[in-house]
C-alpha cells in the first residue's frame, strides 16, 4: 500500500492522497461514529455558523476512546499502518472523509510548508491567530496573502469515501467549507505520533486543550502504542 515513492512524496510535499484504502466496513463504521458524536457531542464541540441559512460547521475533538466505532477504527483499521509506514517518525494526520468531496470544498495544503518553520495556528471561527501579538524569532503568522496570491503550489484532491489525505501536522492547510446545501461533508481526522514525538509548550491555549488528551501531569507515555513496524 505504501510504496517508497509515496513515502518520498510525503517527506517532500508534506501530504499525499491515498485512494481506496478503507473498505465499506470502515467507512460505515466511521459514519456510525460520527452520528453518535453528533447525538452526544463532548464539551469540546463547536458549531460554527456564518449566517442565516448557510449551514453549520460542527467540530469535536478527542472522542476516540468514548465512541466505540472510533476506537475500533483507531485500533483495527489500516489507519495506524498507513501512518506508521508513511512517516516512520514525527507526526501526521489522516483526514478521512466518509462523503464524496468535490474540489471546491476539499482540504487544501501548501506543498512543502512542513519544512518552512513554525507558525501560529488560526482559529476556524474568526480566522485570527491563536495569539495575536508578534513573537519575534519564534512563530510567524501564516502568510495568507502570499498563499492567496498563488505564489505556492496547493495540493488538493477531490475525494471519494475510502480515500484519505495524510499530511504532516506542520503542513499549512485549510478548507473553504461545504458549498453544498444538500450534501454533508463528514470527515474523521485522526492524529498519529511516531516514536520521536515530544510534548511541547506553546505560548497560546492549544486546541484541543491538553487535559482533553492527557492525565495530569501530561506525558507522552500516556498515549497507547497502536502499531509497530515488524522487523
Ligand atoms: O475538514 C476540514 O475542513 C479541516 C480539517 C483540518 O483542519 C484538520 O483535520 O486538521
Automatic annotation (TrEMBL):
It comes from the Eukaryota. Its cofactor is Fe cation. Pfam families: PhyH. InterPro entries: Phytyl_CoA_dOase-like (IPR008775). This is Phytanoyl-CoA dioxygenase. It comes from Diploptera punctata (Pacific beetle cockroach).
Amino acid at each position: 500500500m505504501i510504496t517508497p515513492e509515496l513515502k518520498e512524496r510525503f517527506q517532500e510535499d508534506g501530504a499525499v492522497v491515498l485512494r481506496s484504502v478503507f473498505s465499506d466496513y470502515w467507512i460505515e463504521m466511521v459514519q456510525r461514529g460520527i452520528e453518535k458524536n453528533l447525538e452526544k457531542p463532548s464539551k469540546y464541540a463547536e458549531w460554527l455558523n456564518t449566517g442565516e441559512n448557510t449551514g453549520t460547521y460542527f467540530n469535536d475533538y478527542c472522542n476516540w476512546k468514548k465512541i466505540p466505532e472510533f476506537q475500533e477504527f483507531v485500533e483495527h483499521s489500516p489507519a495506524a499502518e498507513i501512518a506508521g509506514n508513511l512517516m516512520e517518525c514525527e507526526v501526521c494526520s489522516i483526514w478521512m472523509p466518509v462523503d464524496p468531496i468535490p474540489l471546491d470544498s476539499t482540504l487544501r495544503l501548501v506543498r512543502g510548508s512542513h519544512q518552512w518553520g513554525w507558525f501560529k495556528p488560526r482559529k476556524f471561527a474568526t480566522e485570527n491567530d491563536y495569539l495575536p501579538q508578534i513573537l519575534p524569532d519564534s512563530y510567524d503568522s501564516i502568510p495568507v496573502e502570499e498563499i492567496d496570491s498563488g505564489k505556492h503550489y496547493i495540493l488538493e484532491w477531490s475525494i471519494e469515501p475510502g480515500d484519505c489525505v495524510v499530511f504532516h501536522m506542520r503542513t499549512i492547510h485549510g478548507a473553504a467549507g461545504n458549498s453544498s446545501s444538500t450534501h454533508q461533508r463528514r470527515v474523521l481526522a485522526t492524529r498519529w505520533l511516531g516514536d520521536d514525538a515530544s510534548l511541547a509548550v506553546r505560548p497560546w491555549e492549544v486546541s484541543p486543550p491538553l487535559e482533553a488528551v492527557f492525565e495530569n501531569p501530561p506525558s507522552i507515555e500516556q498515549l497507547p502504542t497502536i502499531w509497530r513496524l515488524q522487523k
